[in-house]
Amino acid sequence: MRSGGSALNPRRWWRSAGFAWAGIRHVYRSQANFRIEVWAGVLALGAAWGLRAPIAPVALACALVLSLELINSALEAVVDLSSPELHPLAKIAKDAAAGAVLLAAIGALVVGAAVLGPPLWRWWRLGAG
User: Quick check: 110 pLDDT over 70?
Assistant: First the structure.
């Protein structure tokens, strides 16, 4: 279906945003990994806020992981639609998309350690001493 009107039309923007939220809701309801990643992100952002650490790198790392998980879910759905039977190329596509999420998650852990580690260490040392 073609979309009509200007990209700056607020009505068109809200309609598009509604479709995007529908996709996010579907993935949240149907994918356990996405739910885990959402709540891990909430905890990481809460820790950054509570420790007065920079929030932007943590938020960006969380957004990257969640975005790639959404793309992974979309790719899996398209592969399942186009190749309902097992096929080696379908497996490669799904595994590669899952690998992208894994790499982003590892990167997010590194960002979390770098950004949250020092203030968490200071907080722990002050509480223990």
Answer: yes
Residue 71 token pair: 């793309």
Nearest-angstrom CA–CA distance, 66 and 24: 10
CATH architecture entry for 32-128: Orthogonal Bundle (1.10)
- First-to-last CA distance in the chain? 64
Q: Any idea which residues carry the catalytic annotation?
A: 69
Give the residue extent of every domain in the chain: 32-128
Q: How far apart are CA 89 and CA 87, in angstroms?
A: 6
Kindly report each contact of residues 50-56 with a partner whose C-beta sits within 8 Å and lies 24 or more positions away, as own/partner: 51/116, 51/119, 51/120, 51/123, 52/119, 53/115, 53/116, 53/119, 54/115
Confidence of residue 1 (pLDDT cuts 50, 70, 90): low
Q: What is the pTM of this model?
A: 0.88
Tokens of 66: 């969640």
The whole-number pLDDT of residue 56 equals 98
Mean residue pLDDT of the chain comes to: 94
SS3 39: helix
